[in-house]
Amino acid sequence: MVARQLDEQIAGRFPVGQRLRVLDVGMGQGTQALRLARAGHQVTGVEREPAMIAAASEALAGEPEGIRERVRIVEGDGRDTGVHFLPGGFDLVLCHGVLMYVEEPDALLAGLARMLAPGGLLSLLVRNADALAMRPGLSGDWAGALDAFDTVSYRNRLGLDVRADRLAAVTAALAGIGAPLHSWYGVRVFTDTAPDGAGAPGDLETLLAAEERAGRTDPYRAVAALLHLCGVRG
Hints:
Elements: H1 2-13, E1 21-25, H2 31-38, E2 42-47, H3 50-61, H4 65-68, E3 71-75, H5 81-84, E4 90-96, H6 106-114, E5 116-127, H7 134-138, H8 142-148, E6 153-155, E7 161-163, H9 167-176, E8 181-187, H10 204-214, E9 226-232
Parallel strand pairs: 1-2, 1-4, 2-3, 4-5
Antiparallel strand pairs: 5-9, 6-7, 8-9
């Protein structure tokens, strides 16, 4: 879903065929970085976890030379982008699944915005604090659902205590750093309670079509597990 939504934003903001300068902060195993490199873009990935860097490097090594040449991996923390890069050096900055691990995200967000060229696109994927009661509630954990209404903290599927973000708060933060919210989507509206490791269903395309529509439709997108928020540098 995130890839489809991101492609929609790229197509709507940049000329067809433009090769973008992409910064992927917290690139993980490199899923989005490699996908964008295959599309012809120049991608720099920042990652601090050695295991993730190793996984991304291994995946990159299996790509054709032309794609390998378009990807650079930098070991570092997303809060230190100013140490590694000049302001305004990227057309697209991704930060997916990172903010939930950052206790005070304002400095990180401001640093990401500084990396954007004028008109550049900032893509964030965050846990939706306004819907934290949905997963325990749908799972029959009524006490957990009641507790979730009044907090932005939760325990993720890795067993880590992390934090979520409210749409209104991120919207205000993006406006304050000069990259106001342009579009937003819900992600995992219907599938958040699917068990880890579950195989793809036989009607996968129908499922994706339902998720895609729900992710852009009120009121469904507001109760998604994740929010995909896209800001544009003024």
